[in-house]
Structure to design on (485 residues):
């Protein structure tokens, strides 16, 4: 067990690679109760959400969710979040564990000017992520909600394991299809639901998955992790999250700084995907050099990729090195090891046949 | 898994089986269990000198990299090339999947290393269970 934002979390259960492969080829379940839940309610809630988060929540329909982020006025990250629209005046932010107190204080302070109540419901919910190509079949056994009708990044409410009005969202952090469910956090209920999910997934070879697989899965999908790819010193354009940032929606926290970055010619560094082509594993914090030996950047996340069977990394490099195909070197245990810039995400889930 | 009593152990989680002037070195069950799925082993070269307590290679799992420390001083006489293509053999049986064989400069160095019982107690203490 490791301490993760104050939570005792298993890094792995049966083994990281097996857990990773279960999610890519079958189904896996993660206890992600460490994620925080902040609800914004009231007539001013949309205004608050629009002010605090960079994506355009006005485009959300009831039952829809979007990836977004909260920014400092400098255009750098407070945290990345998922915004769910429960109703016209009711929104839920799902936030990271490590930043929970900071996020809650931030949302409360920034929402003060709006007619909006802010509540931290993090302790009320156990959040389970059921992920993988067999996730729908697994969860469908346990709920009356018709999961085939729930599109990616939409959610519904249904009875799950006998628990009425349970939030079931088609979201995740694995690059795979899957669901996240929010059930009451008391130990008996959490344990019962966990066991029922395990039993429902048994025929698909379901495995409980730990933080280790969660990290390698999200890395293959090039999903950002706070404190690595995004932080208070990295801006939206550097992180390559432009498509989730809607400057055209009007003024919001961070927007004027970001407009300044654009008018100044864009970011000077970019997040890129690297594939290590010589023997070696790039890891978090390792330095990146050009082929003449000049230090140009550093790895934010690096690992062997269990499904792709390559050694991959995300790294910040100057924009002149960001083009796909550019050769660089990662300093691995004092040796420069050749790597090449490759497109991200490293892994994309295969397109499914049209659902009936 | 039991720790073979004919091996000696280091606090850095290597084992050595000494037989006359030859020492066979690997990592312990506790080490492989802590590391998880091993994906890469950096072996020393045959003929290389290794020194007691000094790094002679590394072993990497998906989640971490760990240096290998030589339990004794000597010269590398063989390396387990099989681990290059099948590093997971260490996970399967850490006490059989040897990493290197060395010709010991001073076989009496081995006596100062931990016995199986001492190591087992040490490993338990380290993990807190």
């Amino acid at each position: 067990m490791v301490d993760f934002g104050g939570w005792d979390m298993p890094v792995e259960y049966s083994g990281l690679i097996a857990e990773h492969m279960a999610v890519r080829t079958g189904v896996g379940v993660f206890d992600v109760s460490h994620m925080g839940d902040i609800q914004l309610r009231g007539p001013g809630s949309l205004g608050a959400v629009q002010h605090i988060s960079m994506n355009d929540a006005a485009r959300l329909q009831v039952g829809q969710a979007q990836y977004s982020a909260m920014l400092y006025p400098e255009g750098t990250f407070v945290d990345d979040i998922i915004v769910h629209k429960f109703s016209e005046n009711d929104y839920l932010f799902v936030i990271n564990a490590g930043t929970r107190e900071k996020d809650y204080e931030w949302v409360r302070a920034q929402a003060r000017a709006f007619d909006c109540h802010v509540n931290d419901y993090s302790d009320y919910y156990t959040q389970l992520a059921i992920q993988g190509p067999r996730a729908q079949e697994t969860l469908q056994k346990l709920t009356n909600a018709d999961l085939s009708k729930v599109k990616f990044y939409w959610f519904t409410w249904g009875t799950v394991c006998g628990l009425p009005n349970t939030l079931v969202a088609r979201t995740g952090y694995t690059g795979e299809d899957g669901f996240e469910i929010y059930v009451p956090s008391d130990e008996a209920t959490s344990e019962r639901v966990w066991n029922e999910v395990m039993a429902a997934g048994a025929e698909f070879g379901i495995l409980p998955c730990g933080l280790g697989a969660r990290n390698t899965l999200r890395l293959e999908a090039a999903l950002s992790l706070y404190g690595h790819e995004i932080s208070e010193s990295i801006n939206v354009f550097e992180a390559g999250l432009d498509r989730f940032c809607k400057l055209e929606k009007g003024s919001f926290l961070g927007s004027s700084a970001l407009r300044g970055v654009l008018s100044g010619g864009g970011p000077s560094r970019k997040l890129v995907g690297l594939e290590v082509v010589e023997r070696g594993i790039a890891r978090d914090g390792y330095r990146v050099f050009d082929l003449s030996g000049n230090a140009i950047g550093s790895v934010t996340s690096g690992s062997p990729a269990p499904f792709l069977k390559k050694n991959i990394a995300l790294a910040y490099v100057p924009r002149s090195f960001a083009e796909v195909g550019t050769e660089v070197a990662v300093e691995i245990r004092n040796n420069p090891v050749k790597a090449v810039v490759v497109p991200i995400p490293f892994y994309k889930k295969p397109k499914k046949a049209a659902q009936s | 898994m039991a720790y073979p009593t004919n091996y000696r152990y280091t606090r850095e989680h290597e084992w050595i089986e000494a037989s006359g002037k030859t020492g066979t070195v690997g990592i312990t069950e506790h080490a492989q269990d802590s590391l998880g799925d091993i994906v890469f082993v950096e072996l020393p070269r045959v003929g290389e000198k290794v020194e007691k307590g000094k790094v002679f290679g590394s072993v990497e799992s998906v989640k971490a990299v760990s240096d290998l420390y030589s339990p004794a001083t000597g010269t590398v006489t063989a390396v387990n090339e099989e681990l290059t293509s099948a590093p997971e053999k260490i996970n399967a049986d850490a006490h059989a999947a040897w990493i290197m064989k060395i010709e010991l400069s001073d076989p009496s160095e081995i006596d100062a290393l931990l016995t199986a019982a001492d190591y087992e107690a040490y490993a338990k203490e380290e993990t807190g269970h």
User: Anything to note?
Assistant: Residues 53 and 114 of chain B are 14 Å apart (CA to CA). The beta strands of chain B are 8-9, 14-19, 22-27, 38-42, 49-50, 55-61, 65-69, 74-79, 100-104. Chain B has a mean pLDDT of 94. Chain B has one domain: 8-124.
